[in-house]
Amino acid sequence: MKRGAVHLAFGIAACVFAAIAGYDWATLRQAQAVAKAVGTVTVDSPAQHDDAPEVRLARAVALSKAGRANDAQRLFDALIAQEASPTLRAAALFDLANMQLREAAGSDAAGPIRSMPSLEQAKERYRAALRLAPGDWDARYNLERALWLAPETPGDHDDADVKKRSTVKLRGAQSDDLP
């Protein structure tokens, strides 16, 4: 009886591991198919309804780099609105913000800002991307760059304003509670 129980346990374990291996194999095949589709994306490649979200993101990035901002914007917005994966939404927000920052700053970021609304939209998209992926240092850096191009706070503070801000009182908080 003991030997039969051991064989049964071994058979169940083998079936479970085979199911896990089958699932991993199917996931790998899907990832390879998506990678192949992403690798073949061009600006002129036709869009399919059943394209994977990663393929649609790659097509939007290709359109953005080709200078077709309106088409890219539509694809990015559709991905942001429809995609359930926070990672892919954060990537779409980041790429869309990059496109808007390039439009606002032009080819050289040291020159004058061409479009303040595009720059403001880029800052909002970077913030949204950081809400989804707080550890994204590229988004942090680009948000800092956008804030450097168009600061949101006035640069000149008079002494009375600084003193007023340093004496803010919080209801129910002690001075020891503040950092």
UniProtKB/TrEMBL annotation:
Residues 154-164 have a biased composition (Basic and acidic residues). Residues 150-179 are annotated as: Disordered. It comes from the Bacteria. InterPro entries: TPR-like_helical_dom_sf. Transmembrane segments: none annotated. This is MxaK protein. The lineage of its organism: Bacteria, Pseudomonadati, Pseudomonadota, Betaproteobacteria, Burkholderiales.
